[in-house]
Amino acid sequence: MTDWKLTFLGTGTSTGVPQIGCRCGVCCSADPRDHRLRTSALLEANGYNLLLDCGPDFRQQMLRCGSPRIDAVAITHSHYDHTGGLDDLRPYAYGDSPLPIHCSKDVAHDITQRLPYCFGMTDYPGVPRLRTSVFRPYTTFRSGPLDIMPLDIDHGRMMISGFRIGPVTYITDCHTMPPATLDAIKGTETLVINALRIDPHPTHMNLQQAIDVINAVRPQKAYLIHMSHHFGLHADMAPTLPQGIEIAYDGLQITATTTQTCIEL
């Protein structure tokens, strides 16, 4: 995978930013980089489009990025902020071939129980046609032209998935990095990783923990995602980060040459 583009569709935690009912400085910020939909990304490579998670803001995210084609979806875990938009895949999931949803066995169980009509369990017209494609940790599978290695990620009280896709590693909702995963992502060129806030949290890494992982992996570039309003203002936090670490924001696009652009929100 030598020619790729990653679009950050959303970079916020489960509540999004601004958070409902909050009047803090971050939630009231006029800087669009502080406005964060729920975390999701679109990887475009070799003429193939892979959606990474499909949260409740999916429809809005697609409308504002031009609604590109989606060939497959990879799900990190079944929490609603990462799967709440599966029904909105309707425009991409009609026709003879169901849209593949790459996920773990546990996620496959959860989403088919939650949305049985999307997975052919009921005979109802006009619904999205999805199919689960179950993967196993550290066993590389192929999606179109992409070789994808699922990674075990400790989300505090549950094990979820991250993905290494060629030179790109995408990790969200991590609290502790298993040693096998740390070994598997050594040498990655671009690391996307969560950093919820400054203070410690029981199920997500804070900023310092994310920096520690980045220092251990030593990618060429690292981008922080899944921030809450407790992370701070983008303009205040960005200058404090070590070289090579950047705060991702909604609409940011990065490429294999680390060129950065931004879609108009």
UniProtKB/TrEMBL annotation:
Query: Record's Pfam families?
Result: Lactamase_B_2
The record's CDD domains line, in alphabetical order, gives: metallo-hydrolase-like_MBL-fold (cd16279)
Q: Would you say which domain of life the source belongs to?
A: Bacteria
Where the record annotates domain Metallo-beta-lactamase, the positions are: 37-229
Q: Which InterPro entries match?
A: Metallo-B-lactamas, RibonucZ/Hydroxyglut_hydro
Q: Which PANTHER family match?
A: HYDROLASE C777.06C-RELATED, HYDROLASE C777.06C-RELATED-RELATED
Q: What is this protein called?
A: Metallo-beta-lactamase domain-containing protein
Supply the source organism for this entry: Paramuribaculum intestinale
